[in-house]
Amino acid sequence: MSWRTVVVSKSAKLDYQMGYMVVRQEETTKIFLNEISTVVIETTAVSITGTLLCELVKNKIKVIFCDEKRNPSSELMPYYGSHDTSAKIRNQIAWNDDIKATVWTEIVTEKIRKQKELLERIGKDEEAMLLQNYIKEIQYGDSTNREGHAAKVYFNALFGKEFTRTADCNINAALNYGYSILLSSFTREIVANGYITQLGLFHDNMFNQFNLASDLMEPFRPIVDELVYDMELGTFEKEEKMKLVNILNQTVRINDRSEYVNNAVKIYCKSIFDALGDMDIAMIKFYSL
Known about the structure:
Strand order of the largest sheet: 1-5-7-8
Number of strands: 10
Shape: globular
Number of helices: 10
Strand content: 15-25%
Number of domains: 2
CATH topology of the largest domain: Four Helix Bundle (Hemerythrin (Met), subunit A)
Radius of gyration: 19 Å
CATH superfamily of the largest domain: CRISPR-associated endonuclease Cas1, C-terminal domain
CATH architecture of the largest domain: Up-down Bundle
Largest sheet: 4 strands, mixed
Distance between the termini: 22 Å
Mean pLDDT: 94
Helix content: 40-55%
CATH class of the largest domain: Mainly Alpha
């Protein structure tokens, strides 16, 4: 089982040799591909061979590229992640609007529930009760936008009344970095299951290549939020980023057992696709802490 997250943060040459990724710096390091779940190229001062890129794709290893500011900017994904991709895409296009809205309602409800649970853990009981009321008020397809109302209460409770998600600050930089790591994990699973990331359940922005991943990741966002809340973000540098990269190696409960977040994403995504295909939301498996 792949479990290792490899972060390349300084000048290096990466190539492939006999089943290993070779990292050539002052010293040469070899890492067995079967152990690697994610590779984060955090600097632009890296050269990587085409052979290694092909092998990373074949092994369904997630590769995240960062820009000159060391923020995630793109990722490597295969065109085809499953032998029956054509059939899966036809099914995806034909997903019934009713089941999509019903699944989206479940996702939003679970997201707000996870936000409420986080507020309870940090002693914000009054705000948690408001979120509990929003859960009770959710309508089909979240037509009254309880998600948006809950978000305002939630983020103000976490980071203060003056905080907004549009502010240029270390908190938002950390949240966005963590969300990018999560998003890449979801895009990988969507493609691995044979679906395409552009066609979402609720998100349908024509400029968003990851509409479906943006939908499915929603209940997992509070994992990032809690880690950022626990950080002392006087700065947002390498140490803080490494904590967020490691978020996929945290453990949660899903399917009656303890799993790394990375594996929980796989189980959860598969359950969502099963629910959509069989039109049965009882098949959805959410995580718990």
